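Because discrete structure vocabularies remain unfamiliar, we turn briefly to a single example record, giving the amino acid sequence and backbone structure tokens:
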Amino acid sequence: MQTVVIVVHLMIVLAMIGLVLLQRSEGGALGIGGGGGFMSNRSSGNALTRATAILAAAFFVTSLLLSVLAGLSQRPTTVIPTGGPTAPAPGEPAPLGGGRGILDQLPGGTQPTAPSAPAAPAAPSGPEVPRSQ
């Protein structure tokens, strides 16, 4: 249905462009459009104006119809994922990064962990230099 309305809408647009280009210029600011022409008498000018008005009304009707059709087919969406992370099914490849954070995916990057309790001083692994006091 929407495709048919779009095609009709485009045909109306093309016809309206053609009719506007066929109409005679009223101002004649550049000195063109004077004298005889394709449709030079007044009655044919009225016919072009009337046809343009009818096509303009049809353009508005098809525009409104297209917006209504687009609103009916639109589903509510959200940018926030509703479910938590899901585990891949057995046999499927693991997601990129293995479920780790973005900082863990960088070379040499590890996420710091919060200290749980004060740790005892580590035993020296070699000779120590005395601290200056």
